[in-house]
Design brief:
This protein has 166 residues and is mainly α. The chain has 4 helices and no strands. Helix 1 runs parallel beside helix 3, helix 1 packs antiparallel against helix 4 and helix 3 packs antiparallel against helix 4. It is elongated, with a radius of gyration of 26 Å. The mean pLDDT is 87.
Length: 166
């Protein structure tokens, strides 16, 4: 009889604890889901920006080679593929920045916008010609090196902010 009473008390206590802890468990799982979603978006943004800047520099080298009369590094089909991947990476980056603005937090969204702005500054130099400081085919014009350094700084700031929110 005493065993039955003890078992009944523990059953009631277990049910009550389960009911009381269910909202806490649900809130914890929701926060974990939001953090994972934010981490995925941040990682995708970093990938999109990296691809975009890499393809942009490749396209710039192609244009500089053409204008200098040097043999170009890309065949026409490869040039079209790189251009398409560049455009796709930029579209993906833009979408991810807007999703981060939508979901917040504000400082993360602002850091993402700064990355997009820095990438746009680099994109504006897509047709930058060789300068005296380019070093020829493998070098980059000074303006592009400066813009790329600004992009790297913006990416560093973004990752610092993202780490606090993931």
């Amino acid at each position: 009889m005493a065993n039955g009473i003890i078992a009944g008390v523990f059953t009631i206590v277990g049910v009550v604890l389960g009911v009381l802890l269910e909202p806490v468990k649900a809130a914890f799982l929701n926060r974990a889901h939001v953090r994972q979603e934010r981490a995925d978006r941040c990682a995708a943004l970093l990938e999109a920006v990296t691809l975009s800047s890499t393809w942009l520099i490749t396209l710039n080298r192609q244009l500089r080679d053409e204008s200098a009369g040097r043999k170009t590094s890309l065949e026409p089909a490869a040039y079209e593929r790189v251009t398409a991947e560049f455009v796709a990476a930029r579209q993906n980056m833009r979408k991810l920045v807007w999703l981060l603005r939508l979901s917040g937090p504000d400082d993360l969204a602002e850091a993402a916008e700064q990355v997009r702005s820095a990438e746009s500054g680099l994109r504006e130099l897509r047709q930058e010609p060789d300068d005296d400081d380019s070093g020829g085919r493998d070098g980059m014009p000074r303006a592009i090196r400066v813009a790329r350094a600004q992009l790297d700084t913006a990416l560093g700031s973004f990752t610092d902010v993202a780490r606090r929110h993931i």
